[in-house]
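Lecture notes, unit on protein representations.

Consider one protein chain, 121 amino acids long.
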Amino acid sequence: MSERAIDKASKHFSNEILGNLKNIEVPEWGDDKGPMIIYYYPKMNFAQQRKVGEFFSKGDQAGGLIQTLIYRSLDANKKPLFAQAEFKQFERDVDPDIVLNICNRMVVDDVDITSEEAEKN
């Protein structure tokens, strides 16, 4: 029996993501050993995009950024750095500029434009 089309599509997405773990250094959240390193994959799945998009469509940019950070941030072992239950603490106790900076850097990696493509535009 041949592989189903959806399985091929899913396999492609998994391979594309799992082979491309990236990281961002966040000195503001570090300690005496150095900056915090946030690992992340360059893409989110549809379910994650939908949830983040719901925040932005309601005009809640802060919620969308926090949700992006919660979904995408991993430790060196590819385990989530932040829990969904920490959402409210992000809203109250975390510097919005740092969250914005991290998310912007993640999004820039999400847009996969080569320098040749950029020059054409």
